[in-house]
UniProtKB/TrEMBL annotation:
This is Lipopolysaccharide export system permease protein LptF. GO terms for biological process: lipopolysaccharide transport; transmembrane transport. Component of the lipopolysaccharide transport and assembly complex. The LptBFG transporter is composed of two ATP-binding proteins (LptB) and two transmembrane proteins (LptF and LptG). Its main location: membrane. The chain crosses the membrane at residues 12-32, 52-76, 97-121, 272-290, 302-322, 334-354.
Amino acid sequence: MILNKYIFKDIFKVQIVTLVVLLSVFLCQTIIKILGKASVGNIPIDVVSELIVYSLPSIGFILLPMSLYVGIIVSLSRMSSDSEMVVMRSSGLSGVSFMKICLILALITAIATCLNCLYFMPTANQAKNALTDSSQNNPKYLPIESGKFTDFGDYSLYIQEVNDEKGNKQLGQVFVIKTVKARAINSTEYEFLTALSGHMSKDKTGTQWVVLENGSLYKSDGVSPELEKVDFNTLSIPVPYSDEEDSKDNSLQSISSADLYKSNNLAAQIELQWRVAPVFACFIFAIMAVPLSMINPRQGKFARLGPAIILFVCYYLAILSIRNLLNSGKIPLFPGMYIVPVIFLIFVLIPLNVDKNFLKSFKKK
């Protein structure tokens, strides 16, 4: 009983450390990607921290099973190389005992993975999309700052003063330049606008407008030095809406798992299988990690780390391949992705866990 607790705690500690380290690495990549979009104005800087938080469940999709797999291999391999495994076996612990402990950890990890993939991940994706849409349609997040040029499609704005009052941006001394199609060859027309003040507004369709007040419009044909001047009291400039994120986003990722289960849509059923796949992976990796970690003390701690990595990559490549085949309609929905755990059980897990002495006796017969 004491040895069981010792093994359980040791594997669990390594799993947590592995999860924290891998999460930090993957999170840094996500942060760099989000900051890159924020630097070019695609994402408001005010929502960067929230977008990073909403990215965590998607990162945990693969890291939770991976951390269990690495935790078992590293912990048990260390015990084997330090001859602790020999002492434990002499005390009555067998390979079945190690397998039971690892399956308990796999059950705990599978429950956490199930909650993450079936609930937290779609909820976070839905909140992420809502935040992105809100930031693109909310005047508070528009990239308008004092003393900086801002591009709005064909318009280039320079605003000398911006006052943000309760989310409503009041503009002072605005300068606008617009390039117009040329009427003659090798000539370009320009429009220059100046306004003493302005503000942001939103119409019934949700379109954002920069409303300029008390200004003048100057037109130039690019050839003649003369300018055409028109004074105005109010002039509205539309703020272009970028739907780049929406076009890249898969709407199925934001749908709840319950709605996917009720749906008869093929794409929805494939997405549901994709979310369930990591849950089965927890048990597959736990059963596979135990024999891979039983090494000779002379071999070293990481003797079988290479084959373990190859098997891990092969499993997820198989899942991705089956998903692509399902999307293309080349294979039926069932068994679908569920065939991958079955294949690994028959061709990998059973051969790894069958006693070698049993195989030798079978060959003699």
